[in-house]
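Case study 2.
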Amino acid sequence: MAIDLSEFDHPAWLTAAGAGIGYLLILAVLTVALFIVPYVVFTAL
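Prediction:
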């Protein structure tokens, strides 16, 4: 059974993947900035 992946060559898929990766990256940075950094600062005191 051959699967045709040519339907995923449209630029909209690249845009959607980029948006998803960007969202996850921003979410990771905010999580570190809002939770990990204060935890490290307060445990060091």
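Residues 6-44 form one domain.
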